[in-house]
């Protein structure tokens, strides 16, 4: 009894520390990415918009986010993308962000002899319709360029598109990050995922 009085006296009872609620899965992912450093900031920024994806059905991703999506399929970027496909650019009569006669070579360096009668000579419009563009990489780079300069696709920029073309024509691969290289087909598929066929 003396023992009971000692424990139940005026001493406050010590309660176990409160257990915080379990962190939701997306919160844990955000924390892990935040610890990864500034390089993950773009992916971190995109997590919040995931819930919106189910409403819009459209995903617009930068090359690094597209690659990162393989690590966690819940990571995606929903932004204000309103891209036009190469087919749509070919059919619209007005509303081009540049002159329809602008040559592909004015944007993408292609003064090599092998391009003299194709990409170098032709307009962006002609390249999007060209049968010589076997892999359709010129077609999709031209459409991506038009989408970027008309502010339809905020996740790409002209320097990145130029680098894609330059690296593909020299090595056949585009360096996405330190450990990832895309083939012509993978770059084309990425561009198609943004603006369609």
Question: Would you mind describing this structure in some detail?
Answer:
There is one protein chain. The protein is mainly α and 197 residues long. It is 45% helix and 5% strand. The chain has helices at residues 2-7, 25-36, 41-47, 50-56, 63-68, 86-91, 124-129, 137-149, 158-171, 184-195; strands at 173-177, 180-183. Helix 2 (25-36) packs antiparallel against helix 3 and helix 8 (137-149) packs across helix 10. The chain is globular.
Q: Any chance you could write out the topology, listing elements then pairs?
A:
Blueprint: H1 2-7, H2 25-36, H3 41-47, H4 50-56, H5 63-68, H6 86-91, H7 124-129, H8 137-149, H9 158-171, E1 173-177, E2 180-183, H10 184-195
Antiparallel strand pairs: 1-2
Highlighted features:
2 strands, mainly alpha, globular, 197 residues
Provide a count of the helices. 10
Tally of extended strands?
2
What share of the residues lie within helices? 40-55%
Q: Report the sheet with the most strands, covering strand number, pairing sense and barrel closure.
A: 2 strands, antiparallel
Our Rg estimate from Cα atoms comes to 26 Å
**Helix/strand/pairing category:** mainly alpha
User: Reading side by side through the largest sheet, how are the strands ordered?
Assistant: 1-2
Q: Categorize the overall geometry.
A: globular
Question: Can you tell me the residue ranges where pLDDT is under 50 for at least 5 consecutive residues?
Answer: 37-58, 71-78
End-to-end gap: 84 Å
**Arithmetic mean pLDDT:** 75
Percent of sequence in beta strands = under 5%
What string gives the helices and strands in order?
A: HHHHHHHHHEEH
